[in-house]
């Protein structure tokens, strides 16, 4: 039953909370009938929690789990991804029979409640290595046993990429060959980079995208939104203003602005980032 199912995401700081605001808004706008469950760590400020609570049905504070695997994370040039191990807490949400996990840097364009018809572990291929699934969008069934087993594997084996994706692919090693029914179509986890990888396919199928996943270090909230003209000034060196990514980033900003009519300038360093997030919190509450 819909009341026993939920969309789940994880937020470990106020920066990624901005993504969860837009994600929550996009799920509400597409008229989902499922609950919205948000995992947060202590690093998320109380003003931000108040904002998140407007869109998300429940906020659950969880302990921060960090792989601490600096060597493997260095290969990805993404040292911050170690904390994504905190995603494992999602399997403890046993009040739900089934959940769909969405990374906080995703945006839902159409109702995707049909994902709850899928089984654990259903996910889309990763564009970097398609024999692995991308852990930004996946269907799972909460279970304390699964949580315990994942935690034990994390301690004993670790993750081949230092983040949650490597660990989850090790736990479900036969995903690539087991059964096609566990493979979500790319439209449920489409990355803007796909337009560069195979432009003809994007032109043919891109319009069918249902969930956009803004992978990489530069997120939509790092670009500058220009109110009044509904335009975005992209961070230098990220995307071309003529690319499909630009349109998706603008869609993200439109969703975010529906949560709060406050715009802010791009975030370039940690100190400035904290100041801007604090300013948004003050003006939106």
From TrEMBL:
Swiss-Prot/TrEMBL catalytic activity: L-tyrosyl-[glycogenin] + UDP-alpha-D-glucose = alpha-D-glucosyl-L-tyrosyl-[glycogenin] + UDP + H(+); [1,4-alpha-D-glucosyl](n)-L-tyrosyl-[glycogenin] + UDP-alpha-D-glucose = [1,4-alpha-D-glucosyl](n+1)-L-tyrosyl-[glycogenin] + UDP + H(+)
InterPro entries noted in UniProt: Glyco_trans_8, GNT1/Glycosyltrans_8, Nucleotide-diphossugar_trans
Gene3D superfamilies reported in the protein's UniProt record: Spore Coat Polysaccharide Biosynthesis Protein SpsA, Chain A
Cellular component terms (Gene Ontology): cytoplasm
Cofactor: Mn(2+)
SUPFAM superfamilies: Nucleotide-diphospho-sugar transferases
Class of the enzyme per the UniProt entry, highest EC level: transferase
Protein name: glycogenin glucosyltransferase
Protein source organism: Geodia barretti
Organism placement in taxonomy: Eukaryota, Metazoa, Porifera, Demospongiae, Heteroscleromorpha
């Amino acid at each position: 039953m819909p009341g026993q199912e939920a969309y789940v995401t994880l937020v470990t700081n106020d920066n990624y909370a901005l993504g969860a605001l837009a994600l929550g808004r996009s799920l509400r706008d597409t008229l989902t009938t499922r609950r919205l469950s948000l995992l947060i760590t202590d690093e998320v400020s109380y003003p931000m929690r108040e904002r998140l609570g407007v869109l998300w049905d429940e906020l659950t504070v969880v302990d921060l789990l960090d792989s601490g695997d600096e060597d493997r994370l260095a290969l990805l040039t993404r040292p911050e991804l170690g904390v994504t191990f905190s995603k494992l807490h999602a399997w403890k949400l046993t009040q739900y029979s089934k959940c769909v996990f969405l990374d906080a840097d995703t945006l839902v364009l159409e109702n995707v409640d049909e994902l709850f018809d899928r089984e654990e572990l259903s996910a889309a291929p990763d564009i970097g290595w398609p024999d692995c699934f991308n852990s930004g969008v996946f269907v799972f069934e909460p279970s304390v046993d699964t949580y315990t087993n994942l935690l034990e594997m994390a301690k004993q084996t670790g993750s081949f990429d230092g983040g949650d994706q490597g660990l989850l692919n090790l736990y479900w090693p036969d995903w690539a060959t087991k059964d096609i029914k566990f493979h979500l179509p790319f439209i449920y986890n489409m990355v803007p980079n796909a337009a560069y990888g195979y432009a003809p396919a994007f032109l043919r199928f891109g319009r069918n995208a249902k969930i956009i996943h803004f992978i990489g270090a530069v997120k939509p909230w790092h670009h500058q939104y220009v109110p009044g003209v509904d335009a975005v000034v992209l961070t230098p060196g990220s995307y071309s203003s003529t690319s499909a990514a630009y349109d998706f980033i603008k869609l993200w900003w439109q969703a975010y602005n529906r949560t709060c009519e406050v715009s802010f300038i791009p975030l370039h360093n940690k100190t400035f980032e904290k100041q801007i997030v604090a300013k948004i919190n003050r003006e939106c509450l």
